[in-house]
Amino acid sequence: MDQETDRQSILDTPMSPAASMTADATIAIIAEEGFDRVSVRSVAARLGVAPGTVQYRSPSRRTLLTDALVRSVQRQGGRVLSHEVDPAQPETLVRALAELLPTGAVQREDAAAWVAFGAAASTRPWLADPYWEALQVMRTWVEGVLADARKAGRMRADLPPAEGARLVTAVVNGLTLDLLNAPPTETDEVIGQLRSGLGLILRGL
């Protein structure tokens, strides 16, 4: 979802298999137990290794959390980009963005982590920068899709793509928060809610 840039995006930060496993364990702890439960010891217990092994890869709690944010964004980006989005067919965008909602086990983990990171970033500048970068990368990608959708006659004529992208991310973030706290919801219903939200911006849904 990255555009051309003079610096590396958070989505492109390389992670070794060991670092990815550590980050995945951290994400799972955040999703199941909460942001404040993350520590070298809790991650080590999750992985079934000695704390020193985790500390060697991630020397501090801050590193654990930053790596988990990067990894979660990469996982979400990979799922979204696995869909072939056709700007002339808005339903394809619905299906791609549905990957960001809690529609499955991994999606729910990432959704819970994203909400937790968003709340934590408001008081932690070291998290705020990568969180904001990830949000901007997402918005830039959506803006590009909307610009092409406008050319195809599928977007509201009175709404600039940049404003539309902000609305799309607001819909996705709002649904994510609501669905995480709601009783279990069928995947088709979740996608239907997303479709209704995007239908305020795009034609043909």
Automatic annotation (TrEMBL):
Q: Which residues form the signal peptide?
A: none
Q: Where is the HTH tetR-type domain?
A: 16-76
List the stretches of this chain annotated as a DNA-binding region: 39-58
* A UniProt-annotated Pfam family: TetR_N
Superkingdom classification of source: Bacteria
- Please provide the record's keywords in A-Z order: DNA-binding, Repressor, Transcription, Transcription regulation
What GO annotations for molecular function exist for this entry? DNA-binding transcription factor activity; transcription cis-regulatory region binding
The record, for PANTHER family, names: HTH-TYPE TRANSCRIPTIONAL REGULATOR BETI, HTH-TYPE TRANSCRIPTIONAL REGULATOR RUTR
This chain belongs to the protein called: Transcriptional regulator, TetR family
